[in-house]
Amino acid sequence: MTMRILTAVLRTIRNSRRLAIGLLILGVMVLLALFSPLIVNAIGGGKDPIEVAAYEKWLVPGPGHLLGTDQFGRDVFAMVVKALSVSLQIGAIAGIISTVVGVIVAFVAGYKGGWIDGILSTFTGILLVIPTFPLLIALSAYAKNVTLFQVGVMISIFAWPFAAKTIRSQVLSLRTRPYVDLARVSKARDLEIIVTELLPNLLPFIGVGFASSALGAIFGLVGLEVIGLGPGGVVDLGQIIFNAITTGALTLGAWPMFVVPIVLLTLLFAALNMVNIGLEEVYNPRLRGVAGE
Amino acid sequence: MTADAPPVVAVDKSQDSAPSRGVRAWLSRHPLAAYAIRRVGIYFVELWGALTIAFFFFRLIPGDPVQTLIQTLQQNYMYNQQASTELIARYQQEFGLTGNMFSQYVKYMEKLVLHGDLGPSLINYPTPAQDVILRALPWTIGLLGISAVLSWILGVLLGAIAGWRRGKLGSAIATNLSIALSHVPYFFVALILVYIFAYSMGVLPARSAYDSNISPGITPEFIGSVLKYGLLPGLSIVVIGTLSWILSTRMLMVPVLGEDYLVYAEAKGLKGWRILTRYALRNCYLPQITAFGISLGFIFNGNVLVEQLFNYPGLGTTLVTAIQQLDFNTILGVTDIAIFSVLTAVLLLDLLLPLLDPRVKYWK
User: Fold this and answer.
1) Domains of chain B
2) Cβ separation of B305 and A287 shorter than 8 Å?
3) Global pTM?
4) Is B192 at the interface with chain A, CB within 8 A?
């Protein structure tokens, strides 16, 4: 079964250039994040380039410091590389948690139907309409010393409804397919039907749910950081932007401090969105070519 | 949280199986009225559910607003004595923090629904939170409302054109640009715009909502100043907003283009522009109206950061200030206002839809 899924995934990627490009950008970023300790080391050449007063303050970009240094004399390039891996981690943590919650809610609601579906869908709908950012800011303002994982959990509280909504509508349409009926007549248990019949067919939509939750989570953390309410002790891309604003990097002309994080995050959002649209295109023939050239 | 839910079903049931035959018959003769009643019922359930979730959410977060208030007072007035228990009790009474969680909830809802009272604010004690919010509200409605509507109109038009001219270079550029940028936070665009126009070129202001040398009023100077100061924050919302509407409109437009009636219109010799606006666009902008209402919540989320960056005196800035001082009543009030606005907008648009689209029939 693993092989079946693997070949299906490969076929999907071959069929969509957009999906391939999105995954490629993501892959490069993940590699960069994985090797970030090595890269940071190489920049520092023995000492820690992110240490306070490692170099002179406000150095302009040059061969020694590709992106210059910040108000504490830290190397901006090294900071950006390290921060990228934090941003990716939060996306992965919150993405996985909210996708799992979303999948469970979607399957219970879509498969069971009836009043359970009524309650769960109304609840999901309410959460989708509430502007969640105030709640998220409030939550983080009261929870100062939290780990990255805990922030991920906090963000997931608001991110799962998107995944749940996407997947539920697909469960509804798959539930009435003949092969599901067949499985039911042959006395398969609910869980068995869900795992062996429904889940494999829903993988692309679970992928969509994951990509959009990850996107929302990264945006959430960046949002918290730029108003100075992020978790302590971690530097993500949003915090570098926050630094740039509060220290007046805009007026000083130290553009790398906010342009580079913004470009990286934009690239990341673009890649996740391309994966989203690519997946939808491949599995929804009606859309094929619709979003295309 | 599941405790909120059972009445949902109850409301639906009571409408599905109305006991009186007369009412039922009347409703089946007036499907539109039946739809409206049902829709309004759902609206109230959603509103109540959302407000309840927000209330308990904020009450369950640790943090003591009374202690914060006393600290603020001590700092501001050099009031160095330890607060007496009496004083604390009085403030707790005033902030609605006495009794258990449920009785606090009942009291809060009662004050909110019957008197529109959100309790005293902390950031501007003892001004009531609703007054603080009402002062900020026009700015946000102006900034966010105009930008949201403008990006919707621009995005739907451009998206329709992009769908209409698919395969052409311009359309491909617009589509790929929207795919790449439609999820970028407004805030990023705002930051880049501020850097270019405010700091590098120095042509537009980057902070506040109007020139403080001009006294507020309905004068040409003041309005001009407001427009000038609103340009950058507004633009940053419009740029990204337009791009995301382009993408979704294009997706709705392309399937419509294959329809027979469009071929017929073309065979009649109608001009391309006329076919686009009168024939094709009419069929794809309707779902976008519903989508507009739903998107308001997201736009509000993004708007908080934009306002904060520009120090714009709207709800977003109020919210951030309130959070920094643990001002429960104001935070909850802003959230409540946002919830109310979004749900009401969605309701109004849903009720408006059957009037705009004769094909929509709400048979139950």
Assistant:
1) 2-115 (no CATH), 129-356 (1.10.3720.10)
2) no
3) 0.79
4) yes
